[in-house]
Amino acid sequence: MFKALILIDNEAVDYSLDLIEVIHRLVGDETACIYGLKINSKQNVRGLDVVIQIDTPGIQTKDSRVMTDIIEEVHQQYQFDSIIILATEFGRMVAPRLAMRLQVGLVADITDIVVDKQGRKLVRPAFSGNIMASIVCESSPIMASVHPNVFHRKPSEKEPEVIEFIPNKLKASTIEVLEVLTSDENGIDIREAEVIVSAGAGFTQPIAELQPLANQLAGAVAVSKQLVDKKKAPRKIQVGQSGKTVSPKLYLALGIYGSTQHIEGLKNVKDIISVNTDLGAPMNYLANMVVHGDAATFAEKLKNKLEGSSQNG
């Protein structure tokens, strides 16, 4: 039986449970036992076969070194065939540490899984997102990290078996959390938005000018990697392989060329409207509707049209 471990991120439980789908694709027709590792969390989880619960006071769950020690000890006892970690900022620190500790490879930011006669292939963008690489993992356990919202588990009411685990080699953390700063912004997380107004290098106006349009559409503003690299927008609203993966009902792409890196951030999007002066842009071939023209001009006219409609209504 194929045994797999998922690290449950206490701040992203739903996205962590989506990794169940990663395991299902990884094993194909084989039988799998999917474990979830929860540390100092009372949140309910469903869909797993087994939950390894650690309730030990004083564990510094923000310390990637402590987390690595815990997962290594759990693995030593259960000997997993695969360990999958959510690629949050914290997960990106834990995954490579653990891979080095276990002396195995790590396939980061996977977007797909293919199982065929050659074996289990983990697919991820390579060469700045210009190609997709299929990587066969010959070491065990198979380790991978996955962006939130890339895979989606099937609904399940299955209650897992719970196993209490007490670490024997737990070291004290040297990290002390002095203050936790939270954003005072009321914006919608682009991963949760049903409508996204997204700007690329072809959008020449300040990104802030798109917020009124997004508000009218009850949506959120996003950007491509080029605007983040140019310091015109924060990374937290970036769509793409190195940003966030989104699944809106409507994606309004304003001046976005549509590189592989960006397209990998779009999953299960219902409708795409692409506005671009370049008719040969790859984004146009994915879109349900293409508008040939300046993205900033289109956004302004659409905003004015919606404002007029609301006033007349």
UniProtKB/TrEMBL annotation:
Electron transfer flavoprotein alpha/beta-subunit N-terminal domain residues: 4-179
Family listed: Belongs to the ETF alpha-subunit/FixB family.
Protein name: Electron transfer flavoprotein subunit alpha/FixB family protein
